[in-house]
């Protein structure tokens, strides 16, 4: 694609300035979080936008490890992250493929069921689900958090992948079927390799949602501090009746939680732009 | 070529192969969706509190209270619809526009993408604190911006009429996830289509409306459905920013906050269940309409 | 006071002065006799003590637990401090569990809700077996906040009172406005005039504030009781806040706010983004004349602005202003309308754990080395009357006698398990009056009607 002069002018007069200005808006909260994490109890404030702290207290990043077992919390959080990714990019992808491409009885009805599982508010599910896990003796273990993830209990991912898989030209899978591929073979050899953008997206989401998930870990891991996740550790910095006594410490933990996710995204977004070309195919 | 026998086997096996693919999800749905759903459906006809004893059967009493007595039902539903009708399209358009911009051939693309995704990775506790500062009438940057533009400053979180716009601004800022989905969708458009259009001399806008939007329509459809389902259930961001009461005059009391208060502040879990069943039906109604009408504007590669 | 007084020096002080019933009653260490079936086992029993006291008070709590362990070798208390967010969900699921924590920290209304559903154990049998007399140990209002329909479910901690009976003022602000910093206001009328002299505004709102009466059920309730009004009848069956006194109270709040502060949004915006635990709060920055808050403020002041705390020529404490035009009105505080924390034992707790939980509860609730020490280290009073007589309090805090007066002026409101709903109704109608949607009298009438319906429904059910 050769870029015309007109397009180039548009880019430099419109696109770049717009992106730069919006970037400032997007970056401000991060900058604010980081700057607050370097403040002291006496200088921390929500009221004035003062991005350069005075004094700069780098030791916040050291002392937090003495006050809060962040390494342990990170390890625990990894259980959520790993199972979430497996469930998201494998189990949900299988289900998404079936909903997109395999004809089976009651598929339409089940698709509505899939969508409807997102419609009952979480707040009224907390107690029924808790009671089940409690009677199974699994409260205070990772299982209540891991089992749904490993079973691909996520209508959002399944629906998302269905939408993308349906966009892959039928000719590709038909050709594979001709070559004797089973549905599983088509899924593994045709669908998955041609779906890197959406798999990257689901991978990023599943890592990030598991990383930041708060309420379920609180309910199932709350009693066992040795099983706490980072999100619990962050929230534990809030005081009695929600009073915020150490905003700078909360922001230190926030930065600690943000950086790995930014790296994951920066890495994952490369796969998202891996263009899929179905050369010779009609659209 | 497939023989007749192979074709027969294929057809009948395929019937069950589909189930095999979704079996884990079916198990999880039976466990994590059906049980809570049936439980709530049953509880919605009772006066269940947190008690372990069997609750009393009330018939449709809870539903009658919702429709005839509860002033906060209409209030919270109205708040939610306001948020939904304005917030969902705005966020969708912003996410799509940024995704399209970030799909151009420009410098530092990866960096820009990452920057625009940042809001989505900041933990909610931190987000709420940050926005609390930004919405401050005297010190916050929103009002400083308004003053700079010679516009009157606004009481974002202390005047009832500004609560919902403030919530919409906060939720729009977190468009990262939708942007990612659009970006992924834009990659699926074969570049041959653009090349053909360019040879025909189509303008950029022509390409956008004739190629890009139809080709990503499955993804637009997805984001719209998810936006509606999620918009009806807006909760966590409102809870952290406004508290369970939803700010002055219940202006930010969204429907799920109302459910939450009944469930966990008043421990009226039977009533909360009835409220949630009503919400379920409302969302289901709109979703079915969306899915039914989607044939007219959503274009799939396999149809 | 943690800064100055270690546990050791505190104990020395207490050791000399404490010869009281409270101390005597729990001076004898060792296990309390369990009621009914089974003596406590000789094996070490481990219990989970689930609470929300927060990370920065964890060490103080651990200290009280260590003191308990020193005296009770057969019980191991695990201090399970939980994140504040999601507290209600966490408490509700814990109490529904088959394997619950032995003690759950709950607000008064939650205690009543759980008690009403038979989810928690009354502790009367334990108390009787132990031989202590809670009514002699605690302020009457405090211990009654933990009783529902004649049964006791917990000991109170911290005080359910002391939330509204006093105010903090900034002498520098008063002096700058030409007021006498040593004569704080006693009535609404004096408060209005003082605030008028102090308050300054610019285009964006208030820059220096005299006072804000506040909103919500507690904001309204605190002024109602300073106008000789009552929230609900003593039998908790008849709503009374829409009385003459109630209307007069809300009218004063609304008029004050509109006239002096330029509207409720103006007043709220002045505080937005700060809290009493952050150094940028107007009170610490000579921008707020009168701050209506609870006894926890002593600890906050000491931790947040130590210089101000140390210099008593800059701040003072007075008793809550009352309506000077009402001959029946006097200084008053309101207690038990919200908050009023206790610690409850779920019914499904195994017997040995429940016994151990009570042992810890009694120590924590009544012993000078338990809750008293925990609160003393935060500079706030104890619900155990005797602990507040500790002379170290007076040494550290020049306004200690005002604190005790305000505790004595507290009125405990009769509430039911549906009080959380009523509180939200009242919060809404107060808002409606503030925003001019209804006149105060109409707003209260509307709120009272709905509250009465909720109450009637409760008593009928």
Q: Can I get a quick summary?
A:
Chain A is mainly α and 283 residues long. Chain A is 66% helix and 0% strand. Chain B has helices at 4-43, 61-69, 71-101, 109-121, 124-134, 141-148, 160-173, 176-187, 191-199, 204-215, 217-232, 236-242, 255-265, 269-294.
Summarize the topology.
The complex is a heterotrimer of chains A (283), B (303) and C (461).
Chain A: H1 5-37, H2 60-67, H3 70-101, H4 107-116, H5 126-135, H6 143-150, H7 155-165, H8 170-178, H9 183-191, H10 196-212, H11 215-221, H12 230-235, H13 247-272
Chain B: H1 4-43, H2 61-69, H3 71-101, H4 109-121, H5 124-134, H6 141-148, H7 160-173, H8 176-187, H9 191-199, H10 204-215, H11 217-232, H12 236-242, H13 255-265, H14 269-294
Chain C: H1 7-17, H2 21-27, E1 45-51, H3 58-71, E2 75-81, H4 87-95, E3 103-106, H5 108-116, H6 124-130, H7 134-137, H8 140-144, E4 147-148, E5 151-152, E6 166-170, H9 171-176, H10 188-198, E7 200-202, E8 205-208, H11 216-225, H12 244-261, H13 264-271, E9 290-292, H14 297-304, H15 306-310, E10 315-319, E11 333-335, E12 342-344, H16 351-366, H17 371-376, H18 391-396, H19 400-409, E13 410-412, H20 419-434, H21 440-460
Parallel strand pairs in C: 1-2, 1-3, 11-13
Antiparallel strand pairs in C: 3-12, 4-5, 6-9, 6-10, 7-8
């Amino acid at each position: 694609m050769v870029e015309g002069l007109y397009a180039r002018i548009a880019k430099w007069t419109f696109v770049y300035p717009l992106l730069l200005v919006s970037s400032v808006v997007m970056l401000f909260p991060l900058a604010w979080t980081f700057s607050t994490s370097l403040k002291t109890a006496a200088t921390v404030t929500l009221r004035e936008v003062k991005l350069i702290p005075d004094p700069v207290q780098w030791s916040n990043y050291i002392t937090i490890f003495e006050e809060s077992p962040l390494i342990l919390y990170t390890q625990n959080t990894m259980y959520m992250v790993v199972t979430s990714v497996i469930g998201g990019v494998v189990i949900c992808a299988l289900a998404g493929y079936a909903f997109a491409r395999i004809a089976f009885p009651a598929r339409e009805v089940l698709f509505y069921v899939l969508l409807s599982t997102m419609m009952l508010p979480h707040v009224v599910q907390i107690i029924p689900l808790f009671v089940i896990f409690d009677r199974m003796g699994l409260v205070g273990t990772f299982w209540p958090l891991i089992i749904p993830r490993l079973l691909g209990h996520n209508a959002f991912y399944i629906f998302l992948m269905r939408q993308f898989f349906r966009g892959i030209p039928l000719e590709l899978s038909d050709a594979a079927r001709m070559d004797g591929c089973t549905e599983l073979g088509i899924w593994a050899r045709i669908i998955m390799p041609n779906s890197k953008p959406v798999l990257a997206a689901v991978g990023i989401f599943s890592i990030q949602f598991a990383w930041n998930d708060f309420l379920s870990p609180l309910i199932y891991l709350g009693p066992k501090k040795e099983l706490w996740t980072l999100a619990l550790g962050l929230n534990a910095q809030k005081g009695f009746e929600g009073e915020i006594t150490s905003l700078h410490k909360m922001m230190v933990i926030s930065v600690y939680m943000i950086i790995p996710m930014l790296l994951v995204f920066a890495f994952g977004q490369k796969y998202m732009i891996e263009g899929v070309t179905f050369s010779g195919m009609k659209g | 070529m497939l023989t007749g026998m192979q074709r027969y086997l294929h057809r009948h096996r395929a019937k069950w192969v589909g189930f095999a693919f979704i079996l884990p999800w079916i198990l999880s749905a039976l466990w994590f969706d059906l049980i809570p759903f049936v439980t709530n459906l049953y509880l919605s006809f009772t006066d269940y509190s947190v008690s372990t004893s069997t609750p009393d059967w009330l018939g449709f009493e809870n539903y009658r209270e919702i429709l005839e007595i509860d002033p906060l039902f209409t209030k919270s539903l109205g708040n939610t619809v306001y948020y939904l009708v304005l917030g969902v399209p705005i966020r969708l358009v912003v996410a799509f526009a940024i995704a399209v911009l970030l799909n151009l051939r420009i410098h530092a693309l990866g960096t820009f993408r990452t920057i625009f995704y940042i809001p989505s990775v900041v933990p909610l506790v931190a987000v709420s604190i940050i926005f609390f500062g930004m919405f401050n009438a005297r010190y916050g940057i929103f009002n400083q911006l308004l003053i700079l533009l010679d516009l009157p400053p606004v009481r974002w979180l202390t005047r009832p009429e500004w609560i919902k716009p403030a919530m919409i601004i906060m939720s729009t800022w977190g468009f990262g996830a939708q942007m990612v989905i659009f970006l992924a969708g834009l990659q699926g458009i074969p570049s041959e289509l653009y090349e053909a259009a360019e040879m025909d001399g189509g303008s950029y806008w022509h390409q956008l409306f004739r190629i890009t939007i139809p080709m990503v329509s499955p993804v637009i459809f997805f984001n719209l459905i998810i936006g509606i389902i999620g918009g009806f259930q807006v909760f966590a961001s409102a809870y952290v920013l406004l508290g369970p009461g939803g700010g002055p005059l219940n202006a930010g009391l969204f429907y799920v906050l109302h459910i939450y208060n009944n469930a966990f502040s008043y421990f009226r879990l039977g009533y909360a269940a009835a409220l949630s069943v009503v919400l379920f039906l409302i969302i289901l109604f709109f979703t079915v309409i969306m899915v039914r009408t989607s044939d007219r504007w959503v274009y799939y590669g396999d149809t | 006071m943690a800064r100055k007084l270690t546990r050791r020096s505190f104990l020395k002080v207490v050791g000399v002065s404490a010869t009281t019933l409270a101390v005597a009653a729990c001076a004898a260490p060792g296990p309390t006799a369990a009621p009914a079936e089974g003596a406590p086992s000789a094996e070490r029993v481990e219990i989970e003590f689930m609470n929300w006291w927060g990370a920065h008070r964890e060490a103080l709590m651990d200290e009280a637990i260590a003191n308990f362990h020193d005296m009770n070798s057969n019980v191991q208390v695990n201090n399970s401090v939980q994140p504040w967010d999601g507290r209600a969900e966490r408490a509700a699921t814990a109490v529904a569990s088959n394997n619950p924590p032995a003690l759950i920290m709950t607000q008064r209304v939650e205690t009543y809700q759980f008690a009403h559903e038979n989810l928690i154990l009354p502790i009367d049998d334990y108390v009787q077996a132990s031989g202590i007399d809670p009514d002699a140990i605690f302020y009457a209002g405090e211990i009654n906040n933990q009783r529902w329909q004649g049964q006791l479910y917990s000991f109170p901690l911290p005080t359910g009172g002391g939330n509204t009976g006093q105010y903090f003022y900034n002498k520098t602000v008063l002096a700058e406005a030409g007021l006498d910093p040593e004569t704080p206001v006693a009535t609404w009328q004096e408060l209005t005039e003082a605030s008028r002299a102090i308050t300054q505004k610019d285009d964006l709102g208030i820059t220096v504030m005299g006072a804000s009466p506040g909103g919500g059920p507690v904001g309204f309730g605190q002024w109602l009781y300073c106008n000789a009004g009552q929230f609900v009848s003593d039998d908790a069956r008849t709503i009374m806040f829409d009385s003459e006194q109630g209307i007069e109270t809300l009218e004063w709040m609304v008029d004050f706010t509109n006239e002096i502060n330029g509207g409720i949004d103006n007043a709220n915006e002045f505080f937005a983004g700060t809290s009493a635990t952050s150094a940028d709060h107007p009170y610490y920055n000579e921008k707020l004349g009168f701050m209506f808050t609870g006894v926890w403020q002593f600890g906050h002041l000491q931790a947040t602005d130590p210089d101000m705390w140390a210099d008593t020529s800059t701040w003072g404490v007075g008793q809550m202003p009352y309506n000077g035009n009402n001959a029946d009105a006097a200084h008053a505080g309101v207690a038990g309308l919200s908050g009023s924390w206790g610690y409850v034992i779920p019914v499904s707790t195994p017997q040995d754990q429940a016994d151990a939980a009570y042992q810890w509860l009694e120590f924590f609730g009544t012993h000078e080395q338990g809750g008293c020490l925990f609160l003393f280290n935060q500079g706030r009073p104890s619900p155990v009357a005797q602990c507040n007589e500790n002379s170290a309090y007076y040494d550290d805090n020049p306004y200690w006698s005002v604190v005790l007066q305000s505790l004595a002026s507290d009125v405990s409101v009769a509430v039911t398990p549906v009080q959380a709903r009523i509180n939200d109704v009242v919060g809404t109608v107060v808002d409606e009056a503030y925003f001019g949607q209804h006149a105060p009298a109409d707003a209260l009438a509307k709120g009272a009607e709905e509250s009465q319906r909720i109450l009637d429904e409760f008593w009928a059910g």
